[in-house]
């Protein structure tokens, strides 16, 4: 379909991994900060009022703060700060620093974090170097927020945070790239005999046995049920999404401690979306057309509803990766 080798600049298929790397770095950066949720007005739509949360929100740092605590004002202050700590947050952003506001800077010294050939999990169509991409500069970009700096990624710390946990990426190829990148960043610390990577239909599971942890990817390019749900054989030309039906997929998301959703590119057909009212098994398909924005909004609402009923904001964390660049030659 696409030329394997290209000297085209900017628009080459290899833009894929570039975009993925950038997007992933953003994600990791964001994971580091506890106040990301303020961008989204707190983790989930409806949070219990503050007086409800006071006792339930005890996180690990709070327990440390209390250890040997003597009840003085500083201790109270620290405990209060820790009580607001979101699950899986590491460190704290300096007050007033918006990590989403900044720019990409070229970092010759500190990037890349891993070399393509060190990671056996990258899909062949994304191994730019193996396919002869001559330049390496695309691996050196780093997100620099205005007014503060992000702590460097620490794979040991991340594995410790994931101990006994299930981290799940759900979405399209962009999120698959994020997922693979994260596995590439972590797998070096895990001996060969203690890790595995397996695929069960739409679900791919990387297991870190010594940590009793999994990092997983679930293919659902529209999040809702669609005719593109087969991870290998999917129809791109005639996309049909089934209303708000996410249960078929969502039953695989139950029990995740960290969920990272994305969906965007697959909606960008430039045409109205075809929405199936009945089921894909029905012989006579009841299909209506909707404006893309309306259909997208409808599905996101269904996902949010699922998140609210199935995820606990005190113990789990949900991310949504927003729009992404296209990654086709003429996209
Ligand atoms: C990474 O995290 C581990 C575990 O918390 C810590 O012991 C180590 O010092 C950290 N490394 C760096 C470079 O900060
Ligand atoms: C492993 O993690 C799961 C949660 O993902 C937990 O239910 C289970 O008890 C853990 N097992 C051990 C041996 O820690």
TrEMBL record:
Its main location: Golgi. It holds the Pfam family PMR5N. GO terms for molecular function: xylan O-acetyltransferase activity. InterPro entries: TBL (IPR029962), TBL_C (IPR026057), TBL_N (IPR025846). Residues 150-329 form the Trichome birefringence-like C-terminal domain. Residues 48-67 have a biased composition (Basic residues). It comes from the Eukaryota. Residues 96-149 form the Trichome birefringence-like N-terminal domain. Residues 44-78 are annotated as: Disordered. It is found in: Golgi apparatus membrane. Keywords: Golgi apparatus, Membrane, Signal-anchor, Transferase, Transmembrane, Transmembrane helix. The chain crosses the membrane at residues 12-33. GO terms for cellular component: Golgi membrane. Belongs to the PC-esterase family. TBL subfamily. This is Trichome birefringence-like N-terminal domain-containing protein.
């Amino acid at each position: 379909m696409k030329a394997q080798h290209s000297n085209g600049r900017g628009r080459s298929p290899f833009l894929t991994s570039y975009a993925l790397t950038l997007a992933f770095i953003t994600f990791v950066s964001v994971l580091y900060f506890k106040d990301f949720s303020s961008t989204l007005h707190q983790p989930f739509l409806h949070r219990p009022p503050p007086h409800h949360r006071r006792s339930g929100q005890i996180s690990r740092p709070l327990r440390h703060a209390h250890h040997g605590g003597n009840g003085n004002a500083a201790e109270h202050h620290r405990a209060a700060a820790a009580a607001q700590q979101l699950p899986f947050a590491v460190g704290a952003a300096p007050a007033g620093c918006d990590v989403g506001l900044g720019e990409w800077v070229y970092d010759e010294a500190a990037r890349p974090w891993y070399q393509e050939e060190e990671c056996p999990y990258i899909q062949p169509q994304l191994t730019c170097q193996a396919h002869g991409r001559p330049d390496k500069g695309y691996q050196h970009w780093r997100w620099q927020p205005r007014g503060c700096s992000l702590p460097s990624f620490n794979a040991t710390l991340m594995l410790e945070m994931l101990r006994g946990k299930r981290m799940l990426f759900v979405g399209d190829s962009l999120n698959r790239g994020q997922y693979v990148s994260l596995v590439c960043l972590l797998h070096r610390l895990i001996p060969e005999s203690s890790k595995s990577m397996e695929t069960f239909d739409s679900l791919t599971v990387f297991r870190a046995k010594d940590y009793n942890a999994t990092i997983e990817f679930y293919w659902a390019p529209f999040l809702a049920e669609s005719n593109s749900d087969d991870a290998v054989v999917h129809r791109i030309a005639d996309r049909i999404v089934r209303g708000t039906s996410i249960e078929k997929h969502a039953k695989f998301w139950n029990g995740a401690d960290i969920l990272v959703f994305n969906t965007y590119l697959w909606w960008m057909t430039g045409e109205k979306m075809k929405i199936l009212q009945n089921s894909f098994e029905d012989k006579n398909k009841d299909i209506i057309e909707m404006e893309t924005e309306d259909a997208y909004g409808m599905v996101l609402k269904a996902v949010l509803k699922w998140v609210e009923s199935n995820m606990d904001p005190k113990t789990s964390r949900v991310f949504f990766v927003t729009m992404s660049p296209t990654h086709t030659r003429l996209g």
